[in-house]
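The pair is quoted verbatim underneath.

:::
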Amino acid sequence: MPYPQALPFFPHGSRQIGFIAANLQSLTRLVARADLGFAARRYEQAYIEVSLAAEVGEKVKAAREAAGLSQRELARRIGTSQSAINRLEAGGVGATLTTLQRVASALSLHISVELRPSA
């Protein structure tokens, strides 16, 4: 069975390369099984999760820069490593609510969560 010629473009650039590499094998198996409906739903859900991680990362980076802090200084304030802050800002990891609360506290901000119906 031939592979799809084009997949939807990720708007956040190369941040999702790790995700794509990690999931390529399982997605390939799904395509090989010709379960394209399930593969498309799984791909869409993964895309939503990656997009959310990238959006949160961009907001953390903007808030850190607005506060005039380096990644290293923010990491020191919340008790983690600079590389962990880098991964968070790059959207490479999904932040836990606990981590987001520590970041918000270090930046003198608050967290607001909005749940709304899907479009």
